[in-house]
Write a structure and sequence with these properties.
Order of helices and strands: EEEHEEEEEEEHHEEHEEHEEEE
Distance between the termini: 39 Å
Strand content: 25-35%
CATH architecture: Alpha-Beta Complex
CATH class: Alpha Beta
Structural class: alpha+beta
């Protein structure tokens, strides 16, 4: 608000670059869809045929475009999860599935880095996952590509290589909950806003990283992400 005086200096608004421009996309919230690929759900010990979608959050400033992932403290088991980013230009509540794609600004590629040991302890104790998911630089990300340029992505390869070896592979058409469905469902739980980001789930093959690893992720028609673990 113009003329507002803060008792401490406010932090800059978290944002992501928009590919091919000097503009940036301001990030409001970051929603992550859990176990949205059947093979990954099975990998994590769950039956994808019995579970509705569920969501957890990262913090907006967890998104990072530096190309480096600093190995976090308090964990000895940090996993990679490659995902397609969905960035919203509009929102609302109870958005119909058939209108959901009208809310999408564009897409990107990201990693949902996870302190799996801390997440596992939280699960065992019935506690929230934030300690395993919402830590600094836990969302390495590419610039966003507008949907007006590439269209909407409902199929195409998604994969991750670690040091040149393929670890995760899948296709966007394997998502249990498609992009319009996840937007619609999520809008029944929260009021979605312009600037919201959705990480749309990861295929099977998640695994641990160590310092020195080079991660290269790809979403067909969207882009490539390269990140070094430091």
């Amino acid at each position: 608000m113009h003329g507002t005086t803060y008792v401490i200096e406010p932090q800059a608004i978290p944002s992501l670059p928009v590919a091919g421009t000097d503009k940036r996309f301001p990030v409001h919230r970051v929603y992550c869809v859990g176990r949205n690929y059947a093979a990954h759900a099975v990998e994590m010990g769950h039956d994808p045929n019995k579970e509705p979608p569920f969501f957890f959050q990262k913090n907006p400033d967890n998104l990072d475009t530096s190309g480096e992932f600093p190995y976090p403290p308090a964990s000895n088991d940090v996993h990679h999860e490659i995902e397609m980013v969905v960035a919203l230009k509009s929102g609302g509540t109870d958005i119909p599935v058939e209108k959901a794609l009208d809310c999408v600004f564009g897409y990107g590629v990201a990693l949902d880095m996870t302190r799996r040991d801390l997440q596992g302890k939280a699960k065992d104790m019935g506690r929230p996952w934030e300690v395993g998911k919402a830590f600094e630089a836990s969302g390495p990300c590419t610039p966003l590509v507008p949907a007006s340029t590439i269209g909407h992505r409902d199929k195409g390869a998604i994969w991750l290589d670690v040091n040149g070896q393929r670890k995760q592979t899948g296709d966007l058409n394997q998502m249990i909950w498609k992009v319009p469905e996840m937007i619609s469902y999520l809008s029944g739980l929260f009021t979605l806003m312009p600037g919201d980001i959705i990480l749309s789930g990861t295929p099977a093959g998640v695994g641990a990283v160590i310092r020195g690893d080079v991660l290269r992720g790809h979403v067909e028609g969207v882009g490539d992400l390269e990140v070094r673990v430091v």
